[in-house]
Design goal:
The chain has seven helices and seven strands; from the N terminus they run βββαβαβαβααααβ. It is of the alpha/beta class. Strand 3, helix 1 and strand 4 form a beta-alpha-beta unit. Helix 2 packs across helix 3.
């Protein structure tokens, strides 16, 4: 059975889901844009008999607090700090596997850098650490963002209802099997005050992830962790 909890971390209330039994192998589930831990609602009970699982809502996502971007930096460094503080606060530490999807990749790789001794194995679902994996959709993020906002390409389209829905449906052979609850919940959270600004700030910060790709690649070549990769067109 999955439990739904909050804990104080980084000066805010952080929401997380937990399933399985303490003492079982740990698996940290790190989701991506524009979702929350809700994306793991079916996976967690399916794995609860074999793993101790935790999935965290990042600041600005899901049921975790949404600090005002005027006073709180929405960067991947900051997200990783909050996730780290949350894990320590709930005593979810030590050897574990990481499931990283989309934004979960940059967050997870920063955690690995902080706690190399925790990292044992990984599942990668469309969480990129190679520039070759950045398709035309991401050209603006790769080449333009952060250089000068007056000349940057518009990225607000990534937050529009049609785009959020397309994240779930594009390429699926039977869209009727995908619940609209997915994108409707994401869109609900995106209507909160400051939510869109928070997500745009993270997109602007994405270039910092690309700068770290060589270091992350070198670590993988050195450590060669057990890895399962699920990757489709982005």
């Amino acid at each position: 059975m999955t439990s739904f909890r909050t804990v104080s971390a980084g000066g805010m209330e952080v929401f997380y889901r937990e399933a399985g039994k303490p003492g079982a192998p740990k698996l940290l589930l790190l989701g991506g844009f524009p979702a929350s831990s809700h994306q793991f609602r079916n996976l967690m009970p399916a794995l609860a008999d074999r793993f101790h699982l935790v999935a965290i809502d990042y600041p600005g996502c899901g049921n975790t607090e949404l600090p005002d971007p005027a006073n709180w930096e929405y960067t991947f460094d900051h997200l990783a700090e909050i996730v780290d503080e949350t894990l320590l606060a709930i005593d979810f530490a030590g050897p574990m596997g990481l499931y990283m999807q989309d934004h979960g990749g940059p967050v997870g790789n920063r955690l690995i850098s902080l706690h190399r001794d925790w990292f044992r194995w990984q599942i990668i679902q469309n969480a990129n650490i190679y520039e070759e994996g950045l398709t035309e959709l991401w050209d603006g993020l790769r080449n333009g963002l952060g250089v000068g906002r007056s000349t940057e390409p518009p990225i607000d389209v990534l937050l529009e209802p049609e785009t959020v829905q397309a994240i779930y449906l594009t390429g699926h052979p039977d869209p009727a099997k995908i619940s609209p609850d997915n994108w409707n919940l994401d869109l609900h959270f995106l209507t909160r005050p400051n939510a869109r600004t928070a997500q745009l700030e993270l997109f602007h910060d994405y270039r910092t992830n690309i700068a770290m790709y060589p270091a992350w690649q070198a670590r993988l070549r050195r450590d060669q962790p057990k890895t399962l990769i699920c990757l489709g067109p982005r």
